[in-house]
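Sample pair:
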Amino acid sequence: KSMWDKERRVIADLGIEVITPIKSGDDLIGILMLTRKKNSTAYTLDDLDLLTYLGASSAIVFENARLFSRAQSDALIDSLTRLYNHRYFHQALQGQVKKVAGAELSLLLFDLDLFKLYNDLYGHWEGDKALEKVAAIMKRAAGQKGIACRYGGEEFAIILPYFDAKRAFDLAEKIRLEIEETFLNTADVTQRFLTASAGVCTYPHAAADAEELLKRADLALYTAKNKGKNQTIVYTPHFDSSLGDINGSLSAGSANTATIYALTAAIDAKDHYTFGHSQRVAEYATILSGAMGLDKPHLEIIKEAALLHDVGKIGIPEKILTKEGRLTDEEYEMVKKHVEMSITIIKHLPAMNHVIPAVIGHHERWDGKGYPRGLRGENIPLPARCLAVADAFDAMTSDRPYRAGLSVDVALKEIEKNMGTQFDPSVAGLFIKLVEEGVISVDKHREMKNA
């Protein structure tokens, strides 16, 4: 009844006498049609029953084929980004190297800088959204000429048949800059900023086969990450000889300590209060964290974070830092920016990104009314909650150009009054106990200052 007249005429011209739908659930996926019998006899009920059975069987066959095709696709496609996955990447790289038969083929490897930190700060849901954005950039850039893949968690790869090193580098830089621009233009610019590092290698000039191509592109990426991130490095035949210089610059430990104290010395040259304040906060916060049962690596992180938590004040005008009298609203807003400035500086320090969650959160409040992100309660990293109490206590008990330091008793009462609003109640309560028991001593620092 629902057929058009034209369709009826076609069916009549073909001599079709029986039509049976092929359905998968409620979906029509095909039609089984029979013309008149050769002996011109009519179709019987048995014939129609058989036809119905064939239609149902056909539906099962078609559905199984569809599911098999989807399973094959899912086995090769990353479910989040819809790019080819790690398994397909290795198959494609081997196949494409053979296919170009000695002609040029370039491999680009990308890694999102500090992506674990991005997840820690904003949650895995935001991290997944970021991966989807980056994947879309990769797919557009690869176009019809390249093969874009998700190589790992935050790593991406693009296989570029018939691309020389220059074209590959140009494309890698285009992608890197687009990623930077995409996240630079988000609403929360400073906090959501995300960049990528890239490594490039080209077959056959810099690699003899697919395995060596991957290894050397990865080596170039490793170098880009450790030379400051957010850059593209191309592997060349003389690349290995320069690795000693790179590896020699990567030792953490003493290098980190030297860097931290160089920065705190720079702060001291601008504002003597900030330098001494950071040292005292480091001592108080480390004692507090130890009393909470944190292990030695966490204590070291908190100590380093405390020393660097105000490093961004290097970018605050000296007349504001040393002003005698109350800050204006505009000046206070400027001072608040020191947190963001601290993060900007720390991001460029080798192997120091582990302190960022504590530094970025030390002005957050338990009630969610702090800055810069307005985090609430246990969403604030524990090291940041420890720094917040130690920071406030030292600020209250220290002399400033515009006022003398408060007594220990007054400062502790102020902390107690703000438990559950400004401070984590359990952290603040333990801090008060440690001061009252003399484990944390302010008098020692005052005696040293007087001496």
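The domain at 86-248 is CATH 3.30.70.270 (Alpha-Beta Plaits).
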